[in-house]
């Protein structure tokens, strides 16, 4: 039996409807500053999409574009200016940045109260301790998608393939907070197919097309594919869909949820500042 699709587009549309109402009640336009360094075509597309979504929910998207040769010091200084700007509610540094930049240093220049993408150490710690910080946007979107389909998490074995500090690691912590038992896998995991086969809930977050073969999937598992490269996810989709109970498409699954959570958290940041 083919898996049911976890439709991120439909769920994100409902979230954005709520954000639109929240923004209207706020009485002013929240401002999301997006910082783009260089000319990466995919990054430009993502920033343009986020600007379009901002307009639809009544937010202002303020674009800051910096040349590809920008240094870490220059980027950090610009982000600190935005952090100090009272008119800015949220800051997004588009990932990835050029190779010469210390991305972690740039992330840490974002004021925690404006870290609506959940990339700073402060946000990570607050999320881990359930102290009300901003969740990393993609893991937060994954959790919202699971909740929308009322997928039980307590007691389930969740396997996260990937250990990025803004995707794999926070996804595992959010699942752990919901009483799932979490296993992290990565490039040095021994016998990855066996670990994947144990998963009741699989989160693929590597960015390597079709890394995870469909016949590795446990029958009835929930498959969340957060990978994206060349318009393809980390999971061999067709074969996995024959075994899973639920599965996210790529595109149209996790991606729209990331943007929805980003804007929801921007609205929350504006509300908290009011």
From TrEMBL:
Keyword Amino-acid biosynthesis: yes
Xref: Gene3D superfamilies: Leucine Dehydrogenase, chain A, domain 1, NAD(P)-binding Rossmann-like Domain
GO annotation (BP), single: methionine biosynthetic process
Stretches assigned to the Tetrahydrofolate dehydrogenase/cyclohydrolase NAD(P)-binding domain: 136-273
Pathway terms, separated by semicolons: One-carbon metabolism; tetrahydrofolate interconversion
Catalytic activity: (6R)-5,10-methenyltetrahydrofolate + H2O = (6R)-10-formyltetrahydrofolate + H(+); (6R)-5,10-methylene-5,6,7,8-tetrahydrofolate + NADP(+) = (6R)-5,10-methenyltetrahydrofolate + NADPH
GO molecular function, a single term: methenyltetrahydrofolate cyclohydrolase activity
Family, similarity comment: Belongs to the tetrahydrofolate dehydrogenase/cyclohydrolase family.
Its biological purpose: Catalyzes the oxidation of 5,10-methylenetetrahydrofolate to 5,10-methenyltetrahydrofolate and then the hydrolysis of 5,10-methenyltetrahydrofolate to 10-formyltetrahydrofolate.
Protein name per the record: Bifunctional protein FolD
């Amino acid at each position: 039996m083919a898996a049911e699709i976890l439709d991120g587009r439909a769920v994100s549309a409902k979230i954005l409807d709520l954000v639109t109402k929240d923004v209207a009640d706020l009485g002013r336009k929240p401002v999301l500053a997006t910082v783009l360094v260089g000319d990466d075509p995919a990054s430009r597309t993502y920033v343009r999409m986020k600007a379009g979504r901002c307009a639809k929910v009544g937010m202002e998207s303020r674009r800051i574009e910096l040349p590809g040769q920008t240094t870490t010091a220059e980027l950090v200084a610009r982000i600190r200016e935005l952090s100090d700007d009272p008119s800015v509610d949220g800051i997004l540094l588009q990932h990835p940045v050029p190779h010469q930049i210390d991305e972690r240093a740039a992330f840490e220049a974002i004021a925690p109260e404006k870290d609506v993408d959940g990339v700073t150490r402060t946000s990570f710690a607050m999320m881990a301790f359930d102290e009300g910080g901003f969740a990393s946007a993609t893991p937060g979107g994954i959790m919202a998608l699971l909740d929308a389909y009322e997928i039980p998490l307590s007691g389930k074995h969740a396997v996260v393939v990937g250990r990025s500090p803004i995707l794999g690691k926070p996804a595992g912590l959010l699942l752990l907070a919901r009483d799932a038992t979490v296993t992290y896998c990565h490039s040095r995991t021994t016998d990855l197919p066996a670990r994947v086969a144990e998963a009741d809930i699989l989160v693929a977050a590597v960015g390597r097309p079709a890394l995870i073969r469909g016949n590795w999937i446990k029958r009835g598992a929930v498959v969340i594919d957060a990978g994206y490269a060349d318009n393809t996810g980390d999971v061999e989709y067709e074969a996995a869909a024959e075994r899973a109970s639920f599965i996210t498409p790529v595109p149209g699954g996790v991606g729209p949820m990331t943007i929805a959570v980003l804007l929801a958290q921007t609205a929350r940041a504006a509300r908290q500042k009011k």
